[in-house]
Automatic annotation (TrEMBL):
Keyword match Cell membrane: no
UniProt xrefs under InterPro entries: HTH_Sigma70_ECF-like, RNA_pol_sigma-70-like, RNA_pol_sigma-70_dom, RNA_pol_sigma70_ECF-like, RNA_pol_sigma_r2, RNA_pol_sigma_r3/r4-like, WH-like_DNA-bd_sf
GO biological process, one term: DNA-templated transcription initiation
Superkingdom of source: Bacteria
Species of provenance: Edaphobacter modestus
Keyword Transcription regulation: yes
Gene3D superfamilies (UniProt xref): 1.10.1740.10, Winged helix-like DNA-binding domain superfamily/Winged helix DNA-binding domain
Protein name: RNA polymerase ECF family sigma subunit
Family: Belongs to the sigma-70 factor family. ECF subfamily.
Pfam entry (one): Sigma70_ECF
């Protein structure tokens, strides 16, 4: 889902940079400019969750924004950079929630999530924690590919936006996406008991 261009990129980036240095008005000015897109990203995350999930998109938006607004460590490069990190925070919140929920269930219970065919998995449903673990393994092998999966699959950024955030060419972003999808497909469809 490409981001809308209703608000100039520069305005959002300036507000992010002002927020980073502690300008209390910047966050208030920023929220109306980004809320709709944050909510769309959260809704995309929630589409992959079970129907009776106890978290809602709005909670996910608020949690991500609070975490990101509370940090002065990030040098905001662009609007796309902000949305990429917001999506990563949302995924982390959902994974933490799944771990907490599973701790209350029988040992080995995992939360199932629906995946679009974007990852190339033949099944529509995979385990959220298995997906997270696969992404963590991918990150140890190739951090950039993991980030591209997060930005493309979870944040819905297009290749131009991904290339901008990562400082790479669109061609490289597309190649890494293809390689990461193939790797994740293998990881998510192999038999956990080692059977061929």
């Amino acid at each position: 889902m490409p981001m809308s261009r209703d608000v100039p990129e520069h305005d959002v980036t300036v507000l992010l940079q002002r927020m980073r240095v502690g300008d209390s008005d910047a966050a208030s000015d920023l929220v109306p400019l980004i809320y709709k897109e944050l909510h769309a990203i959260a809704a995309k995350h929630m589409r992959h969750e079970r129907p009776n999930h106890t978290l809602q998109s709005t909670v996910l938006v608020h949690e991500a924004f609070l975490q990101l607004a509370g940090t002065s460590k990030v040098d905001w490069q662009s609007r796309a950079h902000f949305f990429a990190l917001a999506s990563r925070v949302m995924r982390r919140v959902l994974v933490d929630h799944a771990r907490a929920a599973n701790a209350d269930k029988r040992p080995g219970a995992h939360q199932q999530v629906e995946l679009e065919s974007g990852l190339g998995t033949p099944e529509k449903v995979v385990d959220l924690l298995a997906l997270n673990e696969a992404l963590e393994r991918l990150a140890t092998w190739d951090q950039r590919q993991c980030q591209i999966v997060e930005m493309r699959f979870f944040a819905g950024l297009d290749f131009e936006e991904i290339a901008e955030v990562m400082g790479i060419s669109e061609r490289t972003a597309k190649r890494d996406w293809t390689m990461a999808r193939a790797w994740l497909h293998t990881e998510l469809t192999k038999d956990p008991h080692g059977a061929p």
